[in-house]
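Dear Dr. H.,

I hope your travels went smoothly. While you were away I took the liberty of generating a structure for the chain from your last submission, since the lab meeting agenda had it listed for discussion. I wanted you to have the full record in hand beforehand rather than looking at slides cold. The sequence, exactly as received, is reproduced here:
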Amino acid sequence: FFEAYAQYGVPPLEKIITCCPKIQPRTFSIMKFAGQVATIIGLKNLFTVKSKDNEDIVREGLCSSFISEYQEVFARNDEDAISELPKVAVKVKVGMLKYPESPATPLILIACGLGASSILMNLNHREQIMKGKNDKFGDAIVFFLNDGSDGYKCIENEFQSYKEKNVIKDISIVHSSNGHNSKVEVTQLLIDTLNQHSEIIWSLWKEATTAVLFSASGLNNPEQKLNDSLVAITIKEGGLRDEEAMAYTSRHQVDIEIIQ
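The corresponding predicted structure, in token form, is as follows:
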């Protein structure tokens, strides 16, 4: 384009801009509790690229770094600074996870990366409905996979606090290798973790009413792999044949939310 246009002069700026790749929309999880205004988990997304000399170069994610700067300004409650911030186009999407209507429903909650916000929101809802009620509540267990960076420590503490308050029965936290794993490797790490905990998963999964709430970012085609893992656990721990295990799995509530 530029070579062809250059024959007739310098291309105008608006023509040049049309040739630039567009920034793709980014999905963030918003965690809103009763009585709160709103809280965004806007962790700075640090990732590593390789230089020509094969050396690691740390980069900051464009969108996550931009959002984190907004959070800093809003935290100061500086109205003048807030009014000067550039306006950002935001579209709110309804989450994919549906908390079961019956409090007796056992829950298997799986969070990967920023998917933790959706799972924490459901745990907060669970805690609220448990207060002052004598209903029998089903057990809940949590699996949380993240890259082990400092930004996730506070989220891990949030999960641990729900265990201390008996909102969940158990939690398993797994770290990938500081963000160096590919999406395929991280996805496989999650599946391996679930398979290694097949006994505790089956202690809930054996109930026909058990629900799975799964929210994740940074994974490769996790839907089918999660289903295959649940089928494998059903065969191993429940003693069912392949066809029976697939039918058994299909009858459960399995909600999956992928954060791009």
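Two observations you may find useful: The longest strand covers residues 140-146. The first helix runs from residue 2 to 6.

With kind regards,
E. W.
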